[in-house]
Amino acid sequence: MESSFQDLFNSLHEPKDTSVGVRDLYHVTEAIIPIESDGDYLYEEMPVEDYTTSDEEEDFNRANKAILESKMHSKIGGFTQDKLTITLSRRPEVVEDFVKNFLVEEGMLNTLGTFQTEWYQLKQINEIDVCQQPLPDCYTHNRILGRRIEEQLQELDRLREVGVRAGEALVRLRKERDFHRMHHNRLVQEKRRLLYDLNKVKQHYSSFPATLSNLKDRYESAIRESTLTRLERDRAMGQIVSLRCTLNSLHGVTGGIPTGPSTRATTKLDGDTRPIEEVINEPGITESMRNNNYKIPTTMKALVSTTNPFANKEFAPCGHLTKTVGFHLTRKVESHSYGISDVNFHPNKPFIVTGSDDHTWKLWSLPELNLLMSGEGHHDWISSCRFHPSGHRLATGSGDGSIKIWDFCEGSCVQTLNDHTHEIWSISWHWGGDSIASGSQDHHIKIWDIESGTCLSTLREHYQAVNCVQFLPYSQLIISCSADKRAALWDCRNGLCVHTYSGHTQSVNWCCSDIKGVQLASCDAFGQVNLWDLRQQTLTETVDFGPHMANRIEFDMGGACFGVAMGNGVIKMYNVAQRTQNELNEHEESVQCLAFKQDGEYIVSGCSEGKLYLWS
C-alpha cells in the first residue's frame, strides 16, 4: 500500500507539457482531528521571571513608540491612490488536496479515510516529501473539460426540447397562416361582389331623379285638379243651399223647418234641414260615399270662402297707445307650481286660461284673477291651450303628443286626438271651430276634423320641430314657424306650402298675424323680430331685441303694436307705425308667453316661475 501511494505521488510530480493554462479549482473538504488525551503527559515547571520595568524605561519606550506611530501616519497620509492597489496571486492546487477533493466529489469516503491514514503515516516516517507540490495543469484541465462536456450535454438536451417545441409552434403557425390566408381570400371575394352589387345599385338609382321628378309633377297636377274639384263641389253645394232656401221661401216655408215630428238626421249647412237621404242623392256625392252612409262633414262649411269682416275696418287707437305711461302691473298671482307655457283670452267672457309645465290648465276670472276651474289629464307638460271660437270648449296640446278637447258644460275631456309621434308645441282653432291645426316636434303639421276625430291632412315642409302654427283669421291659410329658421304659409285645402319666409339666423320660436291677415311677425332665439307683408310676401322691417331669446310675439287688436316676451324677464312693446319701443320690467324670471285682450285693455303674461301677471 505504501509503495502504491508513493508511485502515485511520484507520477503526479513528473513534469508535464501543459501549454494550455486553465483556471484552478478549490474545494472545501472536511477533516477530522483526533483529540489526544494528555492525562499521562508530565509538564515541566517553568520558573516565574520578573518582567517589570522601571519608570524611566517605560517613558523611553512610550516616546519611542509615539515617534514610530507618527512616522507611520505621515507615510500613510502621503500615499496616493495608485500606491494602494492590491494584487492577488494565484496559488495552484496541491496534489494532496486534489486527491482528497476528487474522492469527496465521487463519494468515495471509505477510500478517502484509507488514503488519509496511509498518507499521514508515510509523512510521519518521511517517506513522502512533505513539501506541498502543485498539481500539474493537465489534470485540472481534464476535470474542467469534463465538467464543461457535462454542461454542454445538458444544454444540448435542453436545446433539443426547445427545438421540438419550436417545430410544433411552426407547424401551428403555418396552419393559422393558411387559415387566415383562406379567410382573407374569401373576404376579398365578398368585397368584390359587394362592390359589383353597389355599382349595380348606383346604376339602378341613377334613373330615379327623373322618375321622382315626373311623379312629383304628376302629384302636384293631381293636387291642383283635386283642389279645383273641391272648389267646384263647394260652389255647387252653395248653389244648392241657395236654391233650397229660395224654394222654401217660395212655398211659404219659414225657416226651412218641416211640419210634424221627424227622427231622421238633418244637416246643419246654412239652414239646410233636408233629410240626410236627400243629401246623399245629390249629384256631387259619389257612390262610395252613399255606400258608406256618408255624412256631410262640418268642415265643408269652413271650406266655403268667407270675407274677413275686419279687412277694411279702421280700428281706433288702443288705450295703451293713448296713455302717457302705457301699461302698468295691476295684479300678480302664484298660479302654477311650474312655469306657465301659454295664456289665452276667452272670446266672449272675461276669462283667461293658462297651461303649465305641471300638466294642468286653469281658468281665471278678470280682473280679480280668481281661480274658476282647473283640468288634469295630460301625462306631460301642456304647451298650448286655445279657446274654441264660440268659447264653450277648450283645446290643449301637450308634450305627451296628444290634443284634448274639454267641454265647459260637461266639465270634462270629451275628445282626445292622438297621431303625432313626438311632443306637440302649438295648436290653433280654425275660425269656424270645426277643425284644429297642430305643430309638433316630429316636423309635421296636422289638420284635424273635430267631429270625426280624424286627421284630415299632414303638411310636410319643415325639416325640424314646428314651434308654432296658426290659422289666419277668416281664411284657409296657415302660418307656421320652425327650428329650421324659416316661417311658412300653407293652403290647408290642398296641403301645399304657398311660400316660405327666410330671414332668421336662429330657430324661429313664434309667429303671429294681425286680425286683418296683412302682417306676419316672427321672432327667433336671438331676439330678432321680422315683419312681413303677407300680400306682397316681402320683408318690411327687422327689429333687434337681442341678444336675449324672444319666446313669444303677439299683435294687439288693431295691429298697430306688438309685444315680445323675452328670456331676460322683460316684455318689449313696439309701436309699428312710430317705430318706438318701451319695456315692462316687473318679471323676475324668463317671460314664456303673453296675450292681448280683444279690446286692448289688458295684457296677461306668464313666466317660468309659475306666476301670472295682469297689465292694464
Supply database-style keywords:
31% helix
Shape, per Cα inertia axes: elongated
Strand content: 25-35%
Number of strands: 28
Our measurement of the CA-to-CA distance between the termini, rounded to an integer number of angstroms, reads 143 Å
Secondary structure layout:
Blueprint: H1 2-12, H2 55-78, H3 95-106, H4 109-124, H5 137-205, H6 208-250, H7 276-280, H8 287-291, H9 299-302, H10 319-322, E1 329-334, E2 340-345, E3 351-356, E4 360-365, E5 371-376, E6 382-387, E7 393-398, E8 402-407, E9 412-418, E10 424-429, E11 435-440, E12 444-449, E13 454-460, E14 466-471, E15 477-482, E16 486-491, E17 496-502, E18 508-513, E19 519-524, E20 528-533, E21 538-544, E22 550-555, E23 561-566, E24 571-575, E25 580-584, E26 591-596, E27 603-607, E28 611-615
Antiparallel strand pairs: 1-28, 2-3, 3-4, 4-5, 6-7, 7-8, 8-9, 10-11, 11-12, 12-13, 14-15, 15-16, 16-17, 18-19, 19-20, 20-21, 22-23, 23-24, 24-25, 26-27, 27-28
Helix pairs in contact: 3-4
